[in-house]
Write a structure and sequence with these properties.
Helices cover 60% and strands 0% of the residues. It has 14 helices and no strands. The radius of gyration is 19 Å and the shape is elongated. Bound molecules: iron/sulfur cluster.
């Protein structure tokens, strides 16, 4: 295990050498094992309909899972298909969206539905560039749609993923000095195990949301603790210091 820790701690901030294959495989095995035991049962994990997954991802931008769940169900009862949403009146869509906030999101969602209908025959494209060309879909959301709706090996980086990968592979001090997400995207892509994009991305998000949390990471019982560069972590202090809360 000492070899694992040494490989990880060689990583710097400016140039981020990627973890070697032993560390990568160990991290993958542990995270997927953790996910099998602790995964959350969320409604958008019980569908493979790309439109339903799109709705969940747009709602989850800026909004907590607990608030999204009832609204996701209500929204899909009202607009069960992409076509129904595309043809709806924008004011009605906005009313259904209330009170999730960030009202640019229902506008974007309906815009995506209309563009999909007009340009792609009503089927959301399974291509990263085509998705990112639509307003409201950034790099993260495109990766989430590609992996969750189409089972592709597309990486994601959001606040949770950044925190988890940063803590494990950089350590909390160097994570605090990291600027921008470019290197984090490279790291996330390098760690993704081939053919497992769906489970992998769900696992990363669940681990960040429920275990390696901003203020109360569960370090003493963590499967990563033997090679995590931040172990043991005072989550409350580091969450505040690095704006990761
Ligand atoms: S040991 Fe602590 S900081 Fe490291 S991954 Fe586990 S919970 Fe997160």
């Amino acid at each position: 295990m000492r070899a694992l820790r040494q490989s990880v701690t060689m990583i710097g901030v400016r140039h981020l050498p990627l973890p070697d294959v032993t560390v990568r495989k160990s991290f993958q095995r542990r995270l997927l094992g953790w996910y099998r035991r602790h995964r959350r049962d969320l409604p958008w994990r019980n569908t493979d309909d790309p439109y339903h997954i799109l709705v969940s991802e747009i709602m989850l931008q800026q909004t907590q899972v607990e608030r999204v769940i009832p609204k996701y169900r209500e929204f899909l009862r009202r607009y069960p298909t992409l076509e129904r949403l595309a043809r709806a009146r924008p004011a009605a869509v906005r009313r259904t969206w209330y009170p999730l906030g960030y009202n640019i999101r229902p506008r974007h969602l309906q815009g995506i539905a209309r563009e999909t209908l007009a340009r792609y025959g009503g089927r959301l494209p399974d291509d990263g560039d085509a998705l990112r060309a639509m307003r409201g879909i950034g790099r993260y959301t495109a990766g989430a749609i590609l992996s969750f709706a189409f089972g592709k090996d597309a990486a994601i980086v959001d606040t949770n993923v950044r925190r988890v990968l940063g803590r494990v592979f950089l350590g909390s001090r160097r994570l605090g000095r990291l600027r921008g997400d470019r290197q984090m995207w490279t790291l996330s892509e390098a760690l993704l195990p081939g053919g497992k994009g769906y489970d992998w991305n769900q696992a990363l998000m669940d681990f960040g949301a429920t275990w390696c949390t901003p203020r109360a990471p569960r370090c003493p019982r963590c499967t990563m603790k033997t090679f995590c560069a931040s172990y043991p972590l005072d989550g409350a202090r580091n969450g505040r210091q690095h704006g990761l809360a």
